[in-house]
Amino acid sequence: MYHNTIHQRIKEVLWRSQTGDTIKDSPFYDRLLHGAGAIRELYLEIYRYHPLSELYFDQLIEQLVQSYTIRPSWLKELDMERLDRGYWFLDNGLTGMSLYVDRWCTNLAAFPSTLSYLQDLGINLVHLMPLFQSPLNESDGGYAVSDFRQVNPRVGSLEELKTVREKMTAAGMHLMLDIVLNHTSHRHEWAQKARAGDRKYQDYYYMFSDRTEPDLYDRQMPEIFPESAPGNFTYIEECRKWVMTVFHDYQWDLNYRNPEVFLEMLANIFFYANLGVDILRIDAPAFIWKEPGTTCQNLPQAHILLRLIKSCVVVATPGMALLGEAIVAPSRIMQYFGSGPYEARECDLAYNATQMALQWDALATGDTRVMLAGQRELTAKPYGTSWITYTRGHDDIGLGYEDHSIVEARFEPTAHRRFLQEYYSGEYPGSDALGALFSVNPKTQDARISGTLASLCGLEFALRQGDRDHVELAIQKILLMQAQSIFVGGIPMLFAGDEAAYTNDYSYLEDPGKNYDNRWMHRAVTDWDKNAFVSRPDTVEYKVFTGTAKLIGIRRQLSCLADHKNIKWLIANDPRVACFVRYNSTQRVYCLFNFNKGAATVDWNMIKEDAGEAGPFFDHWRGTHHRLALEDGSTLPGYSFMILECLST
Ligand code: GLC
Predict the structure, then answer these.
(1) Per-residue pLDDT tens for 115-149?
(2) pLDDT for position 302
(3) What pLDDT score was predicted for residue 628?
(4) Looking at residue 94, what DSSP letter applies?
(5) Residue 517, ligand 1, Cβ within 6 A
(6) Which atom of ligand 1 is nearest to the CA of 141?
(7) Which residue has the CA at smallest separation from atom 12 of ligand 1?
(8) DSSP calls for 482-515
(9) CA torsion sign, 224 to 230 to 232 to 238?
(10) Hey, which of 140, 250, 514 would you mutate to test ligand 1's pocket, going by the most ligand atoms within 8 Å of its Cβ?
(11) Using CA of residue 393, residue 395, residue 397, residue 400, what is the dihedral sign?
């Protein structure tokens, strides 16, 4: 919508900063005029009552101009290309991997030499886990940032990061980095100044002289790491104040009521955008606004701030997509894509943590009914947004899906979750999963799960037993889990090590900076001698790597697997089987997954009902042809799947 007063205001800002001439004929200027109305409304929703609100609004406009002005020309071209294409990140050609540079290849200088390995697997998007400065032993895996612009010298330099970006671009690869929006390290310059008593910087955080307000907050705020970091406030001796520390005591929560904090962090976002980041992962966005008397999660103001960030990015650096790392209940997650007039105008991507957890549910129970019940909410995702799909990441696996999905499947929620916790921590009789419980909350009995994909699928157990058949079964489970997350819609994101069947690494227990956090057991340190086995037939590494690469290749080949809100879940007559169809105007692909150890009956009728007289079919996974009529009554072996393209569509 055109706002004349804002237009005049923009002209004044440009005139004062003498940037008008350079940008007035640019596509940026059109975008600025088009987007400024929304930016102002969103900004005022949060900062209207701040005494310096107008001053900071002008600074916000200046920052947009500045960020665009210094944006490298190749990125400006990419912006235009992506705007022309529209929703570039829905593409079925994108497949990612998350990795810690130091654990993967020691440092950034060595990283380019590993690109061909990634490409052999089919990866063209790399999430480099946080690599900006962060104090050793107080880093939360890099999520406690002490300088948002300096690369951690332990992994390299900013120049080396730029070289990595160039080499990735030359290889046709995309880059994802994090912005840790919710907090800084207590060693960040702002925190140091606040600690020393500087009022300006104390206002960058939630700091209180006594316990009155912290007590008010604490009444409703859950604890995130109840075992290793109980409580939400930390007393700072030097300034005699309590500071809010929702995660660890060395991670101080930023105060977004202060517009200066917003502007500083927006400048950091543009700094990353101008390095050439394709997808910016916004860490922990659910937490960025706090209000006493609430859980301080998912508050409406958090969404306004995210929309404001998105609106600013759309103007200045529109080629960069935003991923909101909101690991929240399914009913909440949808809000991160935006709602009402902001539908599909908040985060472009979100983790499908619900689907991930539902897959683990189905694998443990051998029953897909909870997964099916969970889809109603998930398929309501707005057009133009997408998921990151995964079997696991660097964090724990939370069983955060709704109780009603469990009830619908005729299980009792508390007992069901307890079963899953016991199953994956290997305590349940007969379970071959070797994981561990993370962040057990004795008050609520809540607990999440750590462990690598391979160990949770029974590979570590099978190798310990020296049982070859069991090893094969574990490999089947690994590929089943990967297959579903690769075909269910969204950008698949593998976690480094899973492609080569890494089992748990218990060495974190010897490291004082890590031994309080068992998530490190599934953050593999790459052993390139082991990874060399991926090209040696008959090894476990080879089977998992080539199987995963094949799945990625199939997805890339089938255009209906791009995420255009084109999935329909079908109800199988056998609860062991999950089935959905992905489609577009020229293709229909039926994906069937048997989550049970025993063979299941394939419900051909459900496909017939969906596609009329469709067929014959080609199974891209096994390379076999099928005709429904002939196949009536056929079975899907335990832990196997079919990717059936309907050839007559
Ligand atoms: C995110 C990260 C997690 C980290 C937390 C605090 O959830 O994924 O690893 O501990 O934020 O920054």
Answers:
(1) 999 999 999 999 999 999 999 999 999 999 999 99
(2) 98
(3) 66
(4) -
(5) no
(6) 9
(7) 143
(8) HHHHHHSSSEEEEETTGGGT----GGGGG-TTTT
(9) negative
(10) 140
(11) negative
Instruction: Please confirm, yes or no, whether 91 is among the known catalytic residues.
Output: no
Neighbours of 300 (CB within 10 A): 11
Q: Ligand 1 in contact with 140 (CB < 6 A)?
A: yes
Q: Which tens digits make up the pLDDT trace of 498-508?
A: 999 999 999 99
Instruction: Using the Cα atoms of residue 223, residue 229, residue 231 and residue 236 in order, give the sign of their dihedral.
Output: negative
Please tell me if the CB atom of residue 520 comes closer than 6 angstroms to any atom of ligand 1: no
Point out the catalytic residue in the list 178, 249, 325, 645: 325
Q: What is the mean pLDDT of residues 615-622?
A: 91
Pair 490, 92: CB distance under 8 Å: no
* Active-site hit among 278, 283, 499, 645: 283
Task: Provide the 3-class DSSP secondary structure of residue 244.
Answer: strand
What are the tens digits of pLDDT across the range 367-411? 999 999 999 999 999 999 999 999 999 999 999 899 999 999 999
Extract the tokens encoding 56: 């900071």
Q: What are phi and psi of 626, to 5 degrees?
A: -140, 145
Total-model pTM: 0.97
Residue indicated by tokens 């009902």: 609
* DSSP alpha helix (H) spans, 385-534: 403-408, 413-424, 453-456, 459-465, 468-487, 528-531
